Amino acid sequence: MTWPTFRRLKPHDAEGFPEPVSSQGALVLLWDLEQVTAHRDGRPLPALPAEEDDADLLDRREAAVVLAVKPRSIDSYKTDPSLADHVVVVGGVEHWPRGVLRAYGAARGTMTAPSGRPTGSGDMVPRDLLPGRIAELLDADPAVTAAHAVDVLGISTSTAQKHLQHERAARIAEQMHTEPGLSAEEAADRLGYPPALRRSAVKEAQKLHDKR
Asked: What pLDDT is recorded for position 169?
């Protein structure tokens, strides 16, 4: 059928149409071609693979699950050549092979750092990956301090403060967007940010929210 007809009839909403293979909450929905063809022809739907395979293509949300981070972190990680060189765009959506993600995660977990700092830390963290590492620290502890970020990542205090403020502000603004009517202070409470660590972030979040 033509695209205008498809948009009008929305066959994918009909009962019995195959379920999307996109991750839950994905903005762009994708379907398995063999299942859609079978549905069109009135044949039983072929089963999707039940076992995980290194060749599986995973979108941003699924990649975040493999690496045990928030999807926001993937936005920073994907610029690393280890991932950027293997990206596969399907239907306008970026995907990465499961095996590539596992290798990337293993490499990050075995990186060495000077001065006894935790594995994967140190001042060798590329600037474009720093937002993702800051996001990881906040994922693990909403009350993380700039001093801890300095110790773990080997960055300056001012850099740690700036990135923590920006990340907290972005998350507060997103919480306000998700729950209309929520104030910036209330959103900060929901996210577990202590008053002493969120003052600047709350102000920045309010500005971000007002721009939407």
From this structure: 94
Contact between 131 and 76 under an 8 Å Cβ cutoff? The reply is: yes
Backbone φ and ψ of 123, nearest 5°: -85, 15
Give mean pLDDT, residues 129-145: 86
Measured CA to CA in angstroms, residue 167 lies from 55, 59, 89, 193, 209 at distances of 33, 22, 27, 12, 14
Asked if residue 191 lies in contact with residue 142, where contact means CB atoms within 8 angstroms, the answer is: yes
Q: Per-residue pLDDT for 124 more than 80?
A: no
Which residues have CB under 8 Å from 41's CB, separation 6+?
none
Decide if 61 contacts 25 (C-beta within 8 A).
Answer: yes
Closest to 6 in 3D by CA, of 24, 31, 26: 31
CA distance 31 to 27: 13
> Given phi > 0 = left and psi -120 to 50 = alpha, else beta, which region is 58?
beta
Of the two residues 126 and 132, the one the predictor is more confident about is 132
pTM: 0.53
- Tell me if residue 26 falls in helix, strand or coil: coil
Q: Across the chain, what does the average pLDDT equal?
A: 85
